Amino acid sequence: MLSKYKEILANEPIQAEKAEKAIRIILTLQDELKAHIKQGSGPFLAAIYDEKGTLIAKAANSVVQENCSHCHAEMNAIKQAEQKLATFDLAPHNLSLYVTAEPCLMCLGGIMWAGIKAVYYGVPSKRVEEITGFDEGFKPDWLNEFKKRGITVYGNLASQAGEEVLASYVSEGRKVYKPTR
Q1: Catalytic residue flag (residue 129)
Q2: β-strands 9-10, 45-49 pairing
Q3: Global pTM exceeds 0.85
Q4: DSSP label at 33?
Q5: Which pLDDT value is given to residue 89?
């Protein structure tokens, strides 16, 4: 399965089994995202799992629906996880975040401060911006900054499937907020 996808961008080496599991989850999220978009959500979906593989939280981007700029998929999923686990510090729970696209600047801060231990993402920000026009923010050396803080990152997972979802979102005339163009 892994050979079907572009090179994985990472700040740590990844084992083939872990990569294939992450790709399966990202592909599932990309597929589920299509239904969320039809219901008015933005084109991103995030899920948080514990180290046993139990789903803790899953949420779509709801910025437009809620008229709230911080309702990104990652932030919504983090909030759900914190509420479910009754804590603002997720670090002791050793959680991983899976998201259909590379987190933006705001979400990177939220991930770090919430205590997420690993991030797996689909479409890199550069491609998100090229396809949709969303402004993903200035993120200098964020992979190394996460590594310094013990957060592993694996990206560009199943990005082709994610790019297709994003292109469909745009071609359907859906709302692009904070555009770069």
Answers
A1: no
A2: unpaired
A3: yes
A4: H
A5: 97
Beta pairing partners, 119? 97, 153
Q: Find the distance separating the first CA and the last CA of the chain, reported in whole Å.
A: 36
Give 12's DSSP letter. S
Q: Are strands 55-60 and 45-49 parallel, antiparallel or unpaired?
A: antiparallel
What strands lie across the sheet with 9-10, from one edge to the other? 9-10, 152-155, 118-123, 96-101, 45-49, 55-60
Q: Give CA angle at 82 (21, 175), nearest 5°.
A: 75
Of 74, 82, 102, 136, the catalytic one is 74
6-20: burial string, b at 16+ Cβ within 10 Å, e else? eebebbeebeeeebe
Which stretch of DSSP H or E encloses residue 171? helix 159-171
**Amino acid in position 92:** P
**Whole-angstrom Cα distance, residue 30 to residue 17?**
20
pLDDT in tens, 111-135: 999 999 999 999 999 999 999 988 8
For the chain, how long is the longest CA-to-CA vector?
Answer: 42
Say if CB 124 and CB 155 are below 8 A apart. yes
**Long-range contact pairs involving 15-18 (C-beta distance under 8 Å, separation at least 24):** none
State which amino acid sits at residue 151: I
